[in-house]
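Z., the sequence and structure:
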Amino acid sequence: MHHDDFQLAGFTPYLLNQAAEAQSLIFSAIYKDRYGMLRNEWRVLFHLGRYGEMTAKDISEKAMIHKTKISRAVRALEEKRFLAREVSEEDRRAERLTLRAPGREAFEYLVKAAGEYEDRLAGKLGQDEVQMLKALLKKLL
């Protein structure tokens, strides 16, 4: 491609980022409005709800989020009384994180909301296109 023909609006990384941001904003409104959560808080909550007890390091590696951002999210979720921390017996430097009842309740609600989001997306694109989109995105990963 000649540099004179280059258009940012058609550049694949730009389109992916814009689409991800637009879709993220749609879903983030749900956890932001209902629970006052930020994106990383939702992601920490999701990991604890899905996988059970974890350390911040576990979440950081699994979610591919920097540890300082995880720490900030953990503090915020603790203030909301959504999670509990306990010093690990095996490694005194690590804390085991678990969801408390309000966190579990929020997780259940948000998983249901995520399913409804997916249903709306399938209604907009059609099931075949959703599957194709997911396959292509996984390929790019």
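The CA atoms of residues 49 and 104 lie 6 Å apart. The radius of gyration is 18 Å.

Let me know what you think.
H.
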